[in-house]
Structures are given as C-alpha cells and as structure tokens.
Design brief:
Helices cover about 75% and strands about 0% of the residues. By secondary structure, the protein is mainly α. The protein folds into two domains: about 180 residues, MFS general substrate transporter like domains (Growth Hormone, Chain: A); about 210 residues, MFS general substrate transporter like domains (Growth Hormone, Chain: A). α9 packs antiparallel against α10. It is globular, with a radius of gyration of 21 Å. The protein starts with a helix and ends in a 40-residue tail after the last helix.
C-alpha cells in the first residue's frame, strides 16, 4: 500500500516540478516574444482558465473511464500541448496549448487526489496529505532552480518539460495499484458558500489574483531589467521556500485564533512586503529576505481561507467546499495576469507591486469588517488547518466518525 501511494506522490511531484519550471520559464520566454501586454496577460491567464474548466468537468470523465485511463488521457493532453508550443510561435496556438495544459494538470491532480483519498487508511490520511504537499512545494522550488540552466530562446526547455510531464504517465500507467471507484460529490450552491463564508470566497479570489500575477509577471520584468537567469531562479526559489516555511506556524496560529483575523494579518503583511520590494534598493541582501516573507504571506492566504470556509460549513460538505474554492481561486488566478500586465505596461514593476498591495489591503479590510459584524462563536468546532497549494487539487480528508463521548468510532465489521 505504501509503495502504491508513494508512486502516486512521486508522480505528482514530477508534475509539479515541470509546472514550477514551466510557469517561470514561460514568463521569461514572453519577454522575447512580441505579444504585447494584452496578449501576454491573456496567455498567462489561459492556464488558469483551463485549470478552472477542468476542475468542473474532470470528475465526470474519471467516473466514466476510470482512474488509470483518465490519468493517461490528462497526461497525454499535457504532453501534446507542451510539445506543440515550440513548433510555431503563435499567440492563438500558445493560448490554446496553455489552456490545455491547465485542464490536463487539474485532471491529473484530481485523479491523484481521489485515488490517494480512497487508498489511504483513515489513521494515515493526515500523514499522507502532509507528505503530498511537502512534495508539491519541494518540487515547485526545485523547478525554479532549472531556470538558470537552460537558454530560454531554444526549444530545449520545452523538451525538458515534456520529459518531466511524460515520466509520471509511465509511472502511473505501469503501477500495480488497484484503482478505486468514485463516490458522487455532495452538491453545494455558490450562494450558500458565499453567505456562510464571504471572507473565504473573497480571499480565494484575491489570493489567486496575487499569486498568478506574481509568478507570471515578476520574473519577466526581472529579465527585461537585465537580471541574470540564475539570480531570477534564486529569487523565485526563495519566495517558494518562504511559502513552505510559514505554512506550519501560520497553521498553528489560525487553529488557535479567529481565522479571519489571521487572514487580515497575512494580507496586511503581504501588502507591506510588496511595498518594501518597491522602495528598497534592488540588491540581493535587501530583496531576498523580503521575497521570502512575501512568498510566505502569499502562499498561506489560500489554506487559511479553505480552513475558515470548512469551519462554517457542515462536515458532509467538505469535498464540495474544497472544489468550489478551487474554482473561485482559479477565477481570480485568471484575472491576475490580465489586469497585472496592463498595470505593469503603464506603471512598470512598482505599479504591479502597489496593485498587489492594494488588493491585499482590500482583503484585510473585508476580513476586519466581517469580524466586526459577525464575531467568532464562543465555542469553536472546526477542522484543523492543512498545507494546501491552490494549483494542486487538495486531498479531501473526511471527518473521522466519533461516538458521543468523543472517542473514535470503531469501523463496521
């Protein structure tokens, strides 16, 4: 069992390694292509449009053809779309290919998520989830290191990405693991979620905008300023590692306090970090510590929002809530590069940083106003914080059944 689960986690880590490299590489590659601010924004957003669309429909495909065939189909889509991009430097072609990559990637994540969730024992699921997400962040970080090693104008980076996407296909389709069936999800109307947890919904939209604008546009600006690729790779690596480092401290803090207050603090901290990046001298000694803080605040917005939403909704809606928030975050992620590229075209990098700081402060204000209008309950009955990356479908951990005295309920014979 552990070997089967390990294969799935290793395969997903390779997908995220490819994704981390692909996203930053594409941002750099667009600096040498004459697509214009609007075209660049649309292209960078296409991945998240495909990701969001895939989050809606991939579950039905998995139910119809099974996990292994679905995984092969999604991986094949990602490989084909990536391989097609260097054949012609065309904005319409690249937009279609990036949307296909986003759709295929979310399909891979959802297939893996439901597979792991079904195969992991209840008393192992938390540990499996932690290993899964640590592997995700580590792979995203490692993907940044590849940036400095390959010439961005050659087809070599596309070839490396194709190989990285193809290896998980081989690993999963040759596994001896028995694929599980899928239970139908509990439906959830968006209005119910918005009424019960408006701060979580706002936070997912704004967090998605910030994250996609940062990863899509900041590396491109750095390259245009003549900054070496190795330096860009180190900057992005520090931001990713900052996100990993703050996950557990923020998680413990949010488990002990009103999550909306923690979210407001994170948003304000991000805003301060973004402004500092705009005003500080652009030297490594000054910029890298701030990049770590900015990455930490940015990467913890989404999991705190998810934990807060799950606090407010019934336990049988866990999977539905997680799915809805993935879609909401994807909507924000699609908006981020389109709006951010227009802002940066007019106001350069400082304008982008101030834009991200402004919407973060808006989120902090929304959270504070909601606290004032709806204080936290006297008795907290809620699910713990989990490390979650919004670009990887979160593994749904069903609440453990308990007897009236609070002890775990024995499994039926």
């Amino acid at each position: 069992m552990l070997v089967q689960i390990g294969t799935l986690i290793a395969a997903t880590s390779l997908v995220q390694l490819a994704n981390g490299f692909f996203n930053t590489f594409l941002s750099l590659r667009l600096t040498v292509e004459d697509f214009g601010p609007t075209g660049t924004g649309v292209l960078l957003s296409a991945y998240f449009v495909g990701f969001t669309a895939g989050a809606v429909g991939s579950g039905r495909l998995i139910q119809r053809i099974g996990h292994i065939r679905a995984y092969a189909a999604f991986a094949g889509m990602v490989v084909a779309a990536t391989a097609a991009m260097p054949l012609a430097v065309s904005l319409p072609l690249w937009i279609i290919c990036r949307a296909a990559v986003g759709l295929g990637c979310v399909g891979l994540f959802i297939t893996t998520e439901s597979w792991l969730n079904a195969k992991a024992e209840a008393n192992q699921r938390g540990r499996v989830f932690s290993v899964y997400m640590v592997g995700t962040f580590t792979a995203l970080a490692a993907g940044q290191l590849v940036i400095g090693q390959l010439p961005i104008q050659s087809p070599a980076p596309f070839s490396v990405i194709v190989v990285l996407f193809a290896l998980p296909l081989v690993m999963v389709t040759t596994t001896h693991a028995e694929a599980p069936g899928i239970l139908p999800d509990v439906t959830l109307r968006y209005g119910d979620l918005t009424r019960q947890a408006p701060v979580a919904v706002a936070g997912c939209v704004i967090g998605g905008m910030i994250t996609s604008a940062f990863y899509g546009l900041v590396p491109a600006w750095m390259l245009r300023e003549g900054i070496a690729q190795n330096t860009i790779a180190v900057f992005m690596l520090v931001a990713v590692l900052g996100g990993l480092a703050l996950q557990m401290p923020v998680g413990r803090l949010s488990d002990r306090n009103d999550r909306r207050l923690v979210l407001a603090g994170l948003a304000a901290g991000f805003a301060v970090s973004a402004v500092l990046l705009a005003v500080l001298p652009r030297h490594a000694a000054a910029v890298l510590p701030v990049a770590a803080l900015l990455g930490g605040f940015m990467s913890t917005l989404y999991p705190v929002c998810v934990a807060h939403a799950l606090d407010r909704m019934p336990a049988d809606r866990v999977v539905a809530v997680s799915g809805r928030l993935v879609l909401v975050s994807g909507f924000g992620s699609a908006l981020g590069p389109m709006i951010g590229s227009g802002v940066m075209a007019r106001l350069d990098i400082d304008g982008l940083l101030y834009f991200m700081a402004s919407i973060a402060l808006l989120l902090a204000a929304v959270a504070r106003l909601r606290i004032a209008s709806r204080p936290p309950p006297a008795v907290r009955a809620e699910r713990p914080f989990d490390i979650i990356d919004p670009t990887a479908a979160p593994i749904s951990q069903e609440p453990e059944a308990t007897d009236p005295d609070g002890s775990p309920r024995a499994a039926p014979a």
